Amino acid sequence: MTKRMAKTTVSPAAHQLLITYERYLTDVLDLRPATIRNYVSDLKLFMAWCEQTWRDDKTEAVFSSERVTTPTVTRYRDYLQHDLKRKPNTVNRYLVSLKRYFCWATDMNLIPHDPTRPVKLVAQTSQPLRHLSDAEEEALITAVSNSGNLRDLTLITLMLHTGLRVSEVCHLKWEHVVRRKRSGFLHIWGKRNKYREVPLNVTVRRALEKYEEDRETDGEMGPYVFVSQRTQTRLTPRGISFLIAKYADRAGVENLRAHDLRHRFGYRMAERVPLHRLAQIMGHDSLDTTMLYVKGTQQDLQQAVETIAWE
Any long-range contacts for 77-83 (C-beta under 8 Å, 24+ apart)? Predict the structure, then answer.
């Protein structure tokens, strides 16, 4: 049980309904445990809000799916937006959780119709992706070069020059690496096990060669390219996120996530290659995703509006 759920109380009737719904999510749908926890937690918060609202209105304060109407849901949406000041993507996640629940309740004939069907998600303008600047990239590489090890330097170099997803870096094996004198590529199985070949430039080829030689010298060669020094098993996404955050802190680079290294590659390549080729390298199913790297960054937009400033 999450801390958020532990602090939220609902009536016994609502609690029993949560148990039934969680059993459905667990036994019928092929969902990750974390996803199930989020759906149940979001629903519990809505139930608690309904019971408190009805209590304030001097009506029976026991949650019932039949009592929820479309105005109830829109009022809850306003509460999330204006009272709790939740961001649009957070509000939308709550709404999607409610839509999933009430769709199930309708299918199970618990209610005659779905009150969330007419409710629209909160519109939002897509924000530019985090764009690591040249100076920030240089500071990051300097930090890992001065205080890190060869594994971490190779990992960050590879991420900056290939645009691999964090999960793809974790699963990368030496047998997936093809290095030739003037070329090279990686065999990558990405999302939905979709295969692609990611080219390696000379910077990555040399970094991998040096790292491989170092591993062989120490007698530590295993199937995976990047291994945890503590467990001697492949690095996890959490482990990679931790080391990126560590070096970003030492470099004075704020708000940097591991996935932002992929964005850095995407932005730089978008200036040099056609979108369809970039989509192929990055493993995008849609060019709409690749188009994000063509849009202006927050820094670009700031510089643009500064050009018309009066001061």
Answer: 77/119, 77/122, 79/49, 81/122
> What's the burial of 114, exposed, middle or buried (CB within 10 Å: 0-12/13-18/19+)?
buried
Q: Which two tokens stand for residue 229?
A: 């020094």
Does residue 6 carry a pLDDT above 80?
no
pLDDT at 77: 96
Q: How far apart, in whole angstroms, are the C-alpha atoms of residue 187 and residue 170?
A: 13
The 10s digit of each residue's pLDDT in 50-81 is 999 999 888 888 999 999 999 999 999 999 99
Residue that is written with structure tokens 């996890």 in the block: 236
- Determine contact, residues 36/22, Cβ cutoff 8 Å: yes
